């Protein structure tokens, strides 16, 4: 479109140039697949039909580009995503997006409430409705309001009935240019040649255009049509713009600056410091526009403004430079972190930041710094764009406002908490400005109480918003749990209990029912109030503890059942000593008694229930342990009392003997104080007789009790239900039955003596009658059984002889060791016997039975065993350890005939996998090395290697140390991860220089104040050493290596019981009572001996 008007004061050529104004859109190349341009070479000439078809296809592509341009421009204005260009025409028919576009540039003419079906739900459900035409009319009215020429306006039917959709698209392009000039919308971009469409999309659009037969409007002439509306003053503007373009083409910065400052150019926000940047920016834009114009249209169709920059484009480039300079200043202020500099940069007119407030500068700095850091993390090093700056400023304003409102709300909450009104606290918590999580009104008292408690504990006396948020979130979760408890709803209880906001720990899904029961009971006990978080956690913890104890007790019962089936007292004791068993008063010495009573209780329970697989409960186990302890205590007290009686008899003090005979533990019947001398005499005589009959060297005695046989050591005053190894009863020790017999005999004799006259008369008459009766019967019987009597006598004599023979054979069999010892003609000397291991086995066996250090030891190592090859058949087995692993001295290899030889006992309860790795017997050293694989060993340790060494005092220590070092290096190359231990009698040899990575554990003297027996190991601080009594008459002390780390065992509380004992004054008073008693009264009142005995016994009990 060409506008010709007369202008005064302008030359003809310049006037013609000014008056020819055409504003168009540049057309680019054609990036269409398979595109054949008209500018082909002569070899590729097209026919007329092909050229016509190519032209139609080019028109379809151009129209698709215009649709894409309109789509993107509308998306930039509306902030919504529109359908693809091929579907855009159909999407515009309901007028919703057009009406929203009208609201964008003319909100007063088209408010949002007037838009029909703004969410397009009716359109999607029912299709087009007639009321959708109102939306199109709103758009047309808005264009009239802003002043867009009516020549561009489409009709309503062009859009609603799709009669002329290209005209609607043409109008959108004209509207975009017009609004851009008014500064109401962004500039529409030329996308011709920059977007690609498929052949199918182009063909479909070509068919649509052919279907409606509509002539395509000239989009490039929109600028010229708009120019017809310009006034004379606006022509002066274009003259100034033309001068700017010519100055930009010449590249003269000064001329460009002067042309830009021309008032007729109506340019704003010029900055003198940026003139050179303006020149470069405008020159690039001018060159790019000229290139687009040259590629778009033929020379005849071009006008000036297809190559020259318009006033709007110049102003746009100036604004871009100003904006770029301003954002760089903002970026520099962000890097320096200065609030004042940042606020000054944001207030620059080029940025046009809305809503800036000086008091919000700290929030601006924080928000913009965060946005800049986020941009850098995304890989973008450019400064923030104005849109990003405005968005950050809006967010900072919102945060500042929210922070202010939040502080006021928090202050109100703290003030409410200082009062006793929970409803006021609830109203303050419900205030949305406090930015707290959901608050439950029914838990107002809970919120007030718990938050008030937190406020009192706070150092500043006021709670902050973060603290309130966490506390309210947790209290709301606690309130939900209470609500579920009141309803007894397991499902909601589980959800609320496992909520992360509740903060409750150690919740197990399989215990949810028990949690519910426990907390419901706790809530009923505490009253009508809600349970606090601490009460909920305590309830959960108590349930977990009970469940864990039940599980542990179940495992203990399983272990105990297995131990009972295996019949091992040690395993039974281990199960009972577990802390989780809960069994109290477990005494390790009573392990065998526990096994006996528990097995009996299990068998009895199976008989009563009729179930062979019946198992004991913890109550049954505790009762069995209690009974076993009582029986052991009762047996031990009885044995001690019996020992006291024997000691008193040996001392020959009648009063002392009488006192111990009256001990309740003896349970003797018929003890009389008047017979004390007789008791002493008879018991002493019995001791003399027993001394002549048997052996009195054994320290063990056997005591028969109502609960079984109890074995008592008279020297150590200790007892056990287990029969000691090699037990021999001390024949000089009086038993309870023997003492009772003596007491009964003496008391009975005294009773007879007191009634001697009556008894003599009675006995005489009775004996006479009985004698005569037996005599007559006997005579009659003998007369009738003479032959049978002779036969019986012969058989009886034979039986007596055979019994004597069997008893002799049995005696010799029982004392075969004594018989063997007296067989050699020359007995060994004491010096030879005291070092031999054969003489130490019994003592070692006794130590294993009675001393826990021996019994629980994993390995027992002995050097200088004095064993020889003919001793291989000798029984050196120890109960609980079995046969030793031996290395006897070879006299030919060592050249020595005395001492030497090593052996090891390995506890089978600790390890059964034993491999002999090496054995050395040389003049310098006797060595035995074994590898062990215990039952319980860390996964990273494959085995243990123990080496037992004996080095003769006169051996070459250096050679011995070299042999040990060579052996250790060879074994470590085979198993480098295994711990190694070297122990034995080293005498003067030391491995400290040869094996520097080994540690020596023995620190106590082993012989005559010196440390000759050593133990080396690769584990630092593994053991500590204790000296123990030597075996037999050995001059070496036994060394006990105890691990430094030991797991703690549960120990029961010490129970103290008071035992009443007769005082000396009480006994003296009782004796005086007996002496002053007139016993004739009892004799006169009784007619027979049984009645007299009962009367006297009753009298004694009465006293």
TrEMBL record:
List all membrane-crossing ranges. none
Q: Which Pfam families match?
A: CH, IQ
Q: Which InterPro entries match?
A: CH_dom, CH_dom_sf, Endo/exonu/phosph_ase_sf, IQ_motif_EF-hand-BS, WW_dom
Q: May I have one GO cellular component term? A: cell cortex
Is Coiled coil given among the entry's keywords? yes
UniProt keyword list:
Coiled coil
Cite the source lineage: Eukaryota, Metazoa, Chordata, Craniata, Vertebrata
Q: Which Gene3D superfamilies match?
A: 1.20.5.190, Calponin-like domain (1.10.418.10), Endonuclease/exonuclease/phosphatase (3.60.10.10)
Question: Which PANTHER family does this entry report, sorted A to Z?
Answer: RAS GTPASE-ACTIVATING PROTEIN WITH IQ MOTIF, RAS GTPASE-ACTIVATING-LIKE PROTEIN IQGAP3
The Gene Ontology biological process terms listed for this entry are:
mitotic actomyosin contractile ring assembly actin filament organization
Name the UniProt record assigns to this protein: Ras GTPase-activating-like protein IQGAP1
Gene name of this polypeptide: Iqgap1_0
Q: Which residues form the Calponin-homology (CH) domain?
A: 64-179
> Has the keyword Calcium been applied to this entry?
no
Can you name one GO molecular function term for this protein?
GTPase activator activity
Q: Indicate the segments annotated as coiled coil, or none if absent.
A: 188-215
């Amino acid at each position: 479109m060409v506008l010709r008007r007369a202008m005064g004061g302008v030359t003809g050529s310049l006037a013609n140039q000014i008056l020819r104004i055409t504003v168009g859109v540049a057309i680019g190349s054609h990036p269409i697949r398979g595109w054949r341009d008209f500018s082909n070479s002569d070899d590729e000439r097209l026919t007329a039909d092909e050229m016509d078809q190519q032209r139609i296809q080019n028109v379809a592509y151009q129209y698709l580009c215009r649709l894409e341009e309109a789509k993107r421009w509308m998306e930039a204005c509306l902030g919504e995503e529109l359908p693809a260009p091929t579907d855009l025409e159909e999407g515009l028919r309901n007028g919703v997006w057009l009406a929203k576009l009208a609201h964008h540039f003319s909100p007063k003419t088209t408010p949002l409430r007037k838009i029909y079906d703004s969410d397009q739900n009716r359109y999607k459900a029912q299709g087009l409705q007639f009321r959708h035409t109102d939306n199109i009319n709103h758009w047309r009215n808005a264009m009239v309001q802003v002043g867009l020429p009516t020549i561009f306006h489409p009709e309503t039917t062009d859009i609603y009935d799709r009669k002329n959709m290209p005209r609607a698209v043409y109008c959108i392009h004209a509207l975009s240019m017009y609004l851009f000039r008014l500064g109401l919308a962004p500039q529409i971009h030329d996308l011709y040649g920059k977007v690609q469409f498929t052949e199918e999309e182009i063909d479909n659009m070509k068919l649509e255009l052919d279907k409606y037969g509509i002539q395509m409007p000239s989009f490039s002439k929109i600028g010229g049509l708009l120019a017809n509306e310009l006034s004379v003053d606006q022509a002066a503007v274009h003259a100034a713009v033309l001068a700017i373009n010519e100055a930009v083409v010449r590249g003269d910065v000064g001329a460009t600056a002067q042309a830009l400052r021309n008032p007729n150019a109506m340019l704003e926000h010029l900055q003198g410091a940026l003139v050179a940047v303006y020149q470069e920016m405008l020159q690039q834009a001018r060159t790019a526009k000229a290139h687009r114009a040259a590629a778009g249209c033929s020379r005849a169709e071009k006008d000036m403004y297809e190559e020259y920059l318009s006033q709007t484009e110049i102003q746009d480039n100036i604004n871009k430079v100003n904006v770029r300079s301003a954002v760089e200043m903002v970026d520099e202020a962000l890097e320096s972190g200065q609030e004042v500099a940042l606020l000054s940069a944001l207030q620059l007119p080029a940025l046009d930041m809305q809503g800036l407030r000086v008091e919000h500068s700290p929030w601006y700095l924080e928000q913009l710094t965060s946005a800049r850091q986020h941009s850098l993390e995304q890989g973008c090093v450019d400064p923030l764009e104005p849109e990003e700056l405005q968005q950050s400023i809006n967010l900072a304003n919102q945060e500042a406002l929210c922070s202010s409102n939040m502080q006021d709300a928090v202050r109100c909450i703290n003030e409410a908490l200082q009062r006793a009104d929970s409803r006021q606290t609830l109203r303050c918590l419900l205030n949305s400005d406090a930015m707290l999580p959901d608050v439950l009104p029914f838990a107002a008292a809970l919120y007030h109480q718990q938050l008030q408690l937190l406020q009192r504990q706070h150092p500043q006396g006021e709670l902050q918003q973060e603290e309130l948020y966490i506390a309210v979130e947790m209290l709301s979760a606690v309130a939900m749990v209470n609500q579920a408890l009141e309803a007894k709803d397991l499902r909601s209880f589980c959800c609320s209990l496992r909520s992360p906001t509740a903060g409750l720990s150690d919740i197990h899904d399989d215990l949810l029912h028990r949690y519910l029961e426990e907390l419901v009971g706790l809530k009923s006990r505490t009253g009508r109030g809600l349970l606090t978080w601490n009460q909920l956690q305590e309830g959960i913890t108590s349930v977990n503890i009970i469940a864990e104890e039940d599980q542990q007790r179940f495992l203990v019962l399983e272990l105990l059942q297995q131990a009972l089936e295996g019949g091992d007292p040690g395993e039974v004791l281990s199960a009972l000593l577990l802390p989780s068993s809960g069994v109290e008063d477990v005494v390790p010495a009573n392990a065998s008694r526990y096994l006996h009573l528990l097995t009996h209780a299990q068998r009895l329970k199976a008989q009563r229930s009729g179930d062979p697989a019946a198992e004991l409960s913890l109550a049954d186990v505790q009762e069995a342990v209690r009974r076993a302890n009582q029986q052991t205590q009762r047996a031990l007290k009885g044995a001690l009392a019996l020992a006291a009686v024997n000691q008193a008899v040996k001392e020959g003090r009648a009063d002392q003997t009488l006192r111990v005979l009256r001990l309740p533990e003896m349970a003797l019947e018929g003890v009389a104080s008047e017979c004390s001398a007789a008791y002493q005499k008879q018991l002493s005589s019995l001791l003399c007789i027993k001394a002549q009959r048997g052996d009195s060297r054994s320290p063990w005695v056997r005591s028969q009790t109502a609960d079984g046989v109890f074995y008592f050591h008279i020297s150590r005053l200790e007892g056990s239900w287990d029969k000691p190894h090699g037990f021999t009863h001390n024949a000089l020790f009086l038993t309870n039955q023997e003492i009772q017999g003596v007491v009964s005999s003496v008391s009975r004799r005294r009773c007879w003596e007191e009634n001697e006259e009556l008894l003599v008369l009675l006995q005489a008459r009775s004996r006479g009658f009985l004698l005569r009766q037996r005599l007559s019967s006997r005579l009659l019987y003998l007369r009738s059984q003479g032959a049978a009597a002779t036969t019986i006598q012969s058989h009886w004599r034979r039986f007596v002889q055979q019994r004597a023979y069997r008893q002799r054979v049995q005696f010799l069999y029982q004392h075969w060791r004594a018989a063997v010892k007296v067989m050699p003609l020359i007995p060994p000397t004491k010096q030879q016997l005291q070092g031999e291991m054969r003489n130490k086995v019994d003592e070692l066996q006794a130590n294993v039975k009675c001393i826990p250090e021996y019994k629980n030891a994993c390995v027992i190592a002995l050097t200088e065993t004095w064993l020889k090859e003919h001793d291989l058949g000798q029984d050196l087995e120890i109960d609980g350890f079995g046969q030793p692993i031996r290395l006897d001295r070879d006299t030919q290899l060592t050249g020595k005939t005395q001492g030497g030889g090593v052996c090891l006992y390995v506890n089978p309860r600790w390890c059964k996998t034993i491999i002999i790795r090496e054995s050395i017997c040389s003049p310098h050293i006797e060595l035995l090395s074994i590898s062990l694989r215990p039952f319980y060993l860390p996964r990273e340790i494959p085995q243990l290697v123990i080496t037992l060494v004996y080095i003769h005092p006169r051996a070459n220590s250096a050679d011995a140390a070299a042999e040990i070092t060579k052996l250790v290096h060879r074994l470590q190359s085979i198993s480098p991860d295994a711990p190694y231990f070297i122990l034995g009698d080293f005498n003067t040899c030391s491995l400290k220089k040869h094996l520097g990575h080994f540690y020596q554990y023995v620190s106590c003297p082993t012989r005559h104040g010196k440390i000759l027996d050593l133990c080396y190991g690769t584990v630092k601080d593994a053991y500590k050493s204790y000296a123990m009594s030597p075996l037999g008459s050995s001059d070496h002390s036994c060394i006990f290596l105890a691990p430094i780390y030991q797991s703690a065992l549960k120990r029961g509380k010490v129970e103290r019981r008071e035992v009443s004992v007769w005082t000396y004054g009480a006994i003296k008073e009782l004796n005086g009572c007996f002496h002053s008693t007139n016993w004739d009264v009892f004799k006169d009142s009784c007619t027979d001996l049984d009645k007299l005995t009962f009367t006297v016994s009753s009298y004694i009990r009465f006293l």
